[in-house]
Amino acid sequence: MTGFGSFARTLVVGLLLGFPIVASSAPPSTPPSAPKLERIQVSRDGSHFVGATTGKRFIPWGANYDHDESGRLLEDYWQSEWATVESDFREMRELGLNVVRIHLQLAKFMETADRPHAASLEQLRKLVRLAEQTGLYLDLTGLGCYHKRDVPAWYDALNEADRWAVQVRFWKAVAGVGRDSPAIFCYDLMNEPILPGAKPETDWLAGELGGKFFVQRITRDLAGRTREAVAKEWIQTLTTAIRSIDDRHLITVGVIPWAHVFKGAKPLFYAPGVGDPLDFVSVHFYPKKGDVAGSLAALRVYDIGKPLVVEEIFPLGCSLDEAIEFIDGSKAFCDGWVSFYWGRTIAEYERQSDLKSALVGAWLKRFQKQGPLMQPPASERHE
Prior knowledge:
33% of the residues lie in helices and 18% in strands.
C-alpha cells in the first residue's frame, strides 16, 4: 500500500489507538548542507549498501513523495508548479532524509505503445538534477497506474506479452535518463505487483484505496504456469531491459509482505531462482498494534542474504511508539527505511487543528529524531 490511504480510515484508527499528538523534538535550526553524491552499490559481501567511490556505508532514510496533500500525483503538477517541487525537496533534506521515492506513472511517460513521452522524460531529467543539487538520492518506482481514469485504453487492451513490451520501453527510456547520474539510488520495477490465482482475472488493477490503485497484476492469467515462473520471467524481462541501458544502478521491486498477512507465507518475487537479478529486497510494512514482535518476525522472512529495505513505513495500524519500536527492532538486520512526505513541513502541520495533521506532524518529528540514531557506528562505516 502506498500513500496515506483513506482519511476516514486513518481518523478512526487514530481515535481508537490514541496516537500521540505532541512530540518534544525540534527541527534543526539550520538546514544541513547538501552532500556530494556518489553512486550507491551493494557491498562486496552482499550485506549492505556502500558508496562506489569511498566505500562508506549508506543507510537509506527517506520518504515516499507519491502525492501532495490534496492527492495529486507528482506528474499532475511538476511542470506547472516546479517551485513547489523544489521547495519540497529542500524540506525533505531539512528533515534529515537522504532518499526520495518517486512514483512514475506509465500513462505520463508513454504516449503510445511504442513512443515515450519526450516532455515527461525531460522533466525527469530536471528532477534528477534537482536531486543532485539538494543531495538526495532517488528511488525511481515505475509503471504506476494509480489513477485508473488516466490509464490509456490501448494499454488496458494489450495482452500480457505486449503489455510487458511496453513496460520494457518505459524502463529503457527512464534508465536512459538516470544512467549517468549519481543521484539514482535504484530503479523499482513496479509498486506492489501481484499475480492471479488459479482463475483468470479480468482487470489489471486491484485494491482501490482512497481513489488510487497502488496494486497491479503482471498477468491476468497464469495459463498453466506457476506463479514463480511468471514472476521470474517478468523480472528477467525488465531487468534485462534496464541493464541494456544502465548496468550500474541498483534494481529492486517493492512488494507486499504476505508473511505479514498470512502466517507461514514465503516471498514470491524474492524466492530462490525468481528474484536473482534484483540487487536488494524492498518490502512495505505497516506494523500491527500490539504485535511488534510479530511484525518483526514477518520482516525477517525477507532477510534472504541481500540488503533489506523497508520501502514504506507509517503508523497506520499502530501507535507512533510501536512504529519506532519496529524500526529499532529491525536495525540489526535491515538496511534502510522509507516513510512518507506529502508537501507539508512539521510547522505547517502543527498550525492545523485536525487529527490527520496532528498525526502526520508528530510522526515526521519522530522520524526526523530517529534518523541520526540509525547510522552505523564509526567502526562499521567503511568496507
